[in-house]
Amino acid sequence: MDITWWLAYLALGSFVGLMAGLLGIGGGGIMVPVLTSLFVFQGIPHEHIAHLALGTSMAAIIPSAAASLWSHHRHGAVHWNIVRFITPGILAGTFLATFVAAFVPTRGLALFFAFFMALMSLQMVVNIKPKPSRGLPGPVGVASVGLGIGGVSALVAIGGGSLTVPFLTWCNIKVTHAIGTSAAIGLPIALAGALGYTLNGWGDDGLPAVALGYVYLPALLLMAPFSIFTAPIGAKLAHLLPVTILKRVFAFMLLALAIQMLAAVF
Predict the structure, then answer these.
(1) Which of 61, 105, 149, 225 has the most other CB atoms within 10 Å of its CB?
(2) Gap between the Cα atoms of 182 and 123, Å rounded
(3) Where are the transmembrane segments (predicted)?
């Protein structure tokens, strides 16, 4: 593989970490469309492009999800009773959704991703926040919500924060605790998603020799460490830069990347 691709993965991992620290967002919205374009340019078979982008992104966020969980736990911001009840649903939803994704063509996955990113971008621009109006449902209800969050997260390769935080704040959980609890939930999402995409791609014809199922190892090994390295830099910049304005700019960038992904696969 040409050194240009290695440098591209290094740059992508660094940028994802910086944005995660600066704006508190997961990396899937950036990684999936950019990886899709890189895989197209590398000549990877079209039918595997979106699956590889999703699987690699899920695996790449495992280290940062673990670091985020530990950080929020140290600050006492994780409601472990919620994590305990929601995790079975999260694991099942995420893992099962990878089997669904394996049967969906690349273009179908790209369309779903673009639609979800458009909704995320809209939410970031207008800053829609649900008003706290109720308490948490029972254990079965929480697990059912986890099933849905995990399923959507696997199909767009996110840590679930864009879904979990609004749900928890709607259930009268303090925002800082909602964010911390969401961070803890992000780890099982990443683990189940990475495992599911690995198993579903195992032995598939046409995959690169350096892929583990639908996880492309060169991209994973270069992106993951650098995203962890740049995340603290982004966190420091968050105290110096106008984050509200940056979030809106970033929302338009997410939308542009999603459109670029559609152009690449269509």
Answers:
(1) 61
(2) 18
(3) 7-36, 48-70, 82-103, 109-128, 140-158, 178-199, 211-233, 245-265
* Residue 49 vs residues 76, 110, 201, 254: alpha-carbon distances, Å: 40, 10, 12, 19
Q: Is the pLDDT of residue 4 over 70?
A: yes
Q: Which one of 24-33, 175-184, 212-221, 227-236 scores highest in mean pLDDT? A: 212-221
Helices 62-74 and 175-201 sit at what angle, rounded to 10 degrees?
A: 160
pLDDT of 130 strictly over 90: no
Q: How many CB atoms lie within 10 A of CB 168?
A: 26
Do residues 78 and 181 lie in contact, with contact meaning Cβ atoms separated by under 8 Å? yes
Identify the sign of the CA torsion 12, 15, 20, 23. negative
Structure tokens at 24: 């508190």
Query: Quick one: average pLDDT of 174-195?
Result: 88
197 close to 51: Cβ distance less than 8 angstroms: yes
Q: What is the pLDDT of residue 149?
A: 93
DSSP string, 58-89: HHHTHHHHHHHHHHHHHTT---HHHHHHHHHH
| Distance, CA of 212 to CA of 235 (rounded, Å) | 32
Length of the chain: 266
Pseudo-torsion of CA 48, 147, 231, 37, nearest 10°? 20
Mean pLDDT of the chain: 86
Helices 139-156 and 175-201, axial angle in degrees (round to 10): 60
Q: Which of 14-23, 26-35, 175-184 has the lowest mean pLDDT?
A: 14-23
